[in-house]
Design a protein that fits this description.
Elements: E1 5-7, E2 15-24, E3 30-35, E4 40-44, E5 50-53, E6 59-62, E7 71-79, E8 82-90, E9 97-102, E10 108-115, E11 120-124, E12 128-135, E13 141-148, H1 152-157, E14 160-166, E15 172-177
Amino acid sequence: VGDSSVLTCPFKGKLNMLTWKITPKVGGLCTLVHRTDTNITHRENCSDNWKLRPDLDTALEIRRVGIAQEGNYSCEVASTDGNFHTMYHLTMLVPPRPSLYCDEQGSPVCQAAAGKPPAQLSWVPEGSSTAEEKGHGNGTVTVLSRFTACNTSVTIVTSVATCMVSHPAGNWSQSIAC
């Protein structure tokens, strides 16, 4: 998120015409067409986030990658050796911002804020916990889990609880004594 990314469109022969069709989850179809004989690029309904990279032949640069750029990317090349087609489906992974604290009742609370997809939260030692999910307008989800020990002997033996956050963008764990 925030960086640039480059998608390529492999082909054989000499490039004649390149077409990228972008169907984002949000917004309408964007079409970029570049003809090598005239060296002209035509843009239709495309933001500045999408740029052809003539220095990299058929590459499409996605600037300031964000959730709005999620979607399907289709590339078509007409060359001296025929027509070539490549398809991409771009999905954003947004790592959550994890935190662990004690609430007013002295119970450990673990939060994984604004992740995409939602993070999975678990506790050591195992106990009962309640998990709540709150969706945000940008496609991210905050997960909040409150820990309570299964029985009083667990609470007496150990007052330390460890929250583990699992997410495709990375894992995190931290312990706390409330």
